[in-house]
Design a protein that fits this description.
mainly alpha; two-stranded antiparallel ribbon; 3 helices; 2 strands; globular
Length: 68
C-alpha cells in the first residue's frame, strides 16, 4: 500500500470514528482488504497525530474523547 492510499484510508477511519460509524477492527480490515493489525496500527497513528481515540467496552465502539 502506498503512502497516499494509506493516508486516504487513515482519514476515512477518522471520519468513521467521528461519525460514530466505526463498527469494529475486523469489519474495517475486511472492507480495506488488510489485516486487523493494520487497522490497529491506523488507530495508533491517529493517536500519534493527537486524536484521543478510545474504545467504549459497553457500547463496543471507538470514539474520540473530547474533554469538556
Amino acid at each position: 500500500m502506498d503512502y497516499l492510499s494509506y493516508e486516504k484510508r487513515l482519514n476515512y477511519v477518522l471520519e468513521l470514528i467521528q461519525k460514530k460509524r466505526f463498527r469494529s477492527v475486523e469489519d474495517t480490515a475486511l472492507k480495506f482488504g488488510c489485516s486487523t493489525r493494520t487497522v490497529k496500527r491506523m488507530l495508533s497513528h491517529l493517536r500519534e497525530k493527537g486524536y484521543d481515540v478510545r474504545y467504549d467496552r459497553l457500547e463496543k465502539k471507538y470514539y474520540i474523547y473530547l474533554p469538556e
